Every structure is written in C-alpha cells, then in structure tokens.
Amino acid sequence: MKKEGKLIVFSAPSGSGKTTIVHDLLKQTDLNLDFSISATSRAKRGAEIDGKDYYFITAEAFQKHIEKEDFIEWEEVYTNNYYGTLKNEVERIWSLGKHVIFDIDVVGGLNIKNQFPDQTLAIFVQPPSIEEMERRLRNRQTDSEEKIKERVLKAEKELEYAQQFDVILVNDNLEVAKQEARNLVKNFVL
C-alpha cells in the first residue's frame, strides 16, 4: 500500500462522545478530511446506512477478507462481532487528496498508529468517568442491559490503553472537546 496523506485516529470507549466529535470535524471543510468507513459483521443499529456508517458484511465474508489480507487492521471486538479497516478504503480517500479520519476501537487505533507512526495522530477520547459513560449509553437507548454491562467492562480495559495515544482528550464538556479536537487536527494536517 503506498503511503500518502495523514491519518487521524479517534478511539474511545462507547459513550465517550468520539463519534459526535468526529462528525463535527468532518464539517470543518478547511481540514480536508474524509471518513474511513469500517467494515463490521455486527447488525445495523437504528438508522445506520451500509456504505455510509459501516460496510455491513457477514462474519463469513469478513473471514475471507482476513484470509486475503485485505485489512490494515481488524479485531474481533465482541464475540462474532468483527470490525476492521479495509486497505482499499484508505486508498480511496487518499486518491481524493484527502486525509483519513477514523472512528475506531482502541486496539484498531493503536494498530494503525504502529503501522504508520509518522503519518498518524492518535487521539483517545476519555469520558469524565465510567459512571457518566454508562449514563450516556443508557440515554442512547440502543443497547440491552446486558450489552451496556459488556460495554462498561470493556471500557474499563480500554482506559488502560489511553497513555499509548498521542493525546488524551477528556470529554466533560462537548463544545470544549470539539474545539480542542479541531485545534489538534488543524495543527497536524496544515
């Protein structure tokens, strides 16, 4: 894979606000960003759109892509729920002359940083507390009680990786966090 453009990784536990921050950054036209659409084997949630929010593929199709080494990174995030970044997705964005922005799990984000250390800005979005994160997950009303408990347990593990990122962005005030993210990305890409 030829190397071009910059890579901006946003990783965080569920409910930390990273997706909201990434969507805000994509509206900043001066940053010249495009969203890396991850592939996943999980089912669609709510109004998610295939090819916009994720590439929704079966676990079997995901396995075939793994065998063909089509991914920059991939992970089985939850049992039989695979997530990954296809090489051709990054190439698609670079061919447009844009920088790639990722909304990706912690391990995947670090894998990208390790493969492209000089081209990547890795930002860990941290919720103010696990309790606040759990409250946000409940307010979304998209997950079962069992899934919320699973996400909270996973978040506690993910927080241990925070120090490996270039920046820890604590999201205790969304407007402040969005502005900080804009400044970090602008300084990196311009």
Structural class: alpha/beta
Number of folding domains? Answer: 1
Write the CATH architecture name.
3-Layer(aba) Sandwich
In what order do the strands lie side by side in the largest sheet?
A: 2-7-1-8-9
Uncertain spans, ≥5 residues at pLDDT below 50? none
Radius of gyration: 16 Å
Determine the strand fraction and express it as a percent band: 15-25%
Total number of strands: 9
Helix content: 40-55%
CATH superfamily: P-loop containing nucleotide triphosphate hydrolases
Shape annotation: globular
The biggest sheet amounts to: 5 strands, parallel
Give the number of helices. Answer: 7
Q: Which fold name corresponds to the CATH topology?
A: Rossmann fold
Determine and state the CATH class.
Alpha Beta
Instruction: Give the helices and strands as they follow along the chain.
Output: EHEEEHEEHEHEHHEH
Relevant terms:
190 residues, alpha/beta, Rossmann fold, four-stranded mixed sheet, 7 helices, 41% helix
Task: Tell me what the structure shows.
The protein is of the alpha/beta class and 190 residues long. The chain has one domain: Rossmann fold. It is 41% helix and 23% strand. The protein contains seven helices and nine strands. The chain has helices at 18-26, 59-67, 87-95, 106-115, 130-140, 145-158, 174-189, and strands at 7-11, 33-35, 38-40, 54-56, 71-78, 81-86, 99-103, 120-126, 167-170. It starts with 6 loop residues before the first strand and ends with a helix.
Structure summarized in a few sentences:
By secondary structure, the protein is of the alpha/beta class. Helix content is 41%, strand content 23%.
